[in-house]
Amino acid sequence: MPITLPKLPYALDALEPHLSRETLEFHYGKHHRKYVDTANQLIAGTELEGLALEDMVQRATGKVFNNVAQAWNHAFFWKCLTPRPQKPERELQHALERSFGDLEVFRQRFTQSAQDVFGSGWAWLVMNDDGSLEIATTRNGDTPLTDGRLTLLACDLWEHAYYIDYRNDRAKYLQHFWPLVNWEFVAENLGTAAPTARPGRHGVAVQPRPR
């Protein structure tokens, strides 16, 4: 089953003025598409070809992993954004308060963690086995999916995510990230958590990828 480039859940210019149409044309239309196309070339004729993308991420290594993981990361990231301003719903708000004290503290800590990532990578909000929420960062194309943690929110920290709009000013990009957060999507991900399993993106239990 080939990997497909998912359709964006909004128009290319819908995230303006925070992210421009040009940024999405390059980030989604070229970078994300390239990961998908390269991944399909690499998995052709292999045991990975018939798997779901999440399962590919669990099993792949090397160059194949880099491309299938980035295809998954980006597909998840686009859903984390919305042109409609939102606030966390009550259950999510309470979960954030239990783990971080309040929403503003979470935002500050997430922003600082994202700012501190050296080079290319990602910042994530994840759920641990005990139900606590944690801020995690990964380098390059790595993803918490390989550790079996439930991913709730992602922020792309590669320069291609913001260079057109903000040049090398990651801090400014992060300021403009928060008005776009799709808290409904974060809450949906939280709702897939089960007490007896580590769910993946679609509520499917996953195991850590061998290192």
Structural write-up:
The protein is mostly helical. It has two domains: 21-79, Helix Hairpins; 90-191, Iron/manganese superoxide dismutase, C-terminal domain (minor pseudopilin epsh fold, 3-Layer(bab) Sandwich), CATH 3.55.40. The protein is 45% helix and 10% strand. The protein is built from eight helices and three strands, in the order αααααβββααα. The chain has helices at residues 21-43, 53-59, 62-79, 90-100, 103-116, 163-166, 170-177, 183-191; strands at 121-127, 133-139, 150-156. A three-stranded antiparallel beta sheet has the order 2-1-3, with helices on both faces. α1 runs antiparallel to α3 (62-79) and α2 packs antiparallel against α3 (62-79). The protein starts with 20 loop residues before the first helix and ends in a 20-residue tail after the last helix. Residues 194-211 have low confidence and may be disordered.
In short:
The radius of gyration is 17 Å and the shape is globular. Helix content is 45%, strand content 10%. A hairpin with a 5-residue loop joins strand 1 and strand 2.
Can you tell me the CATH architecture of the largest domain?
3-Layer(bab) Sandwich
Please give the share of residues in helix: 40-55%
Write down the Rg: 17 Å
Structure summary, number of beta strands: 3
Give the overall average pLDDT: 92
Q: Given this structure, which CATH class of the largest domain is correct?
A: Alpha Beta
How large a portion of the residues is in β-strands, by DSSP E? 5-15%
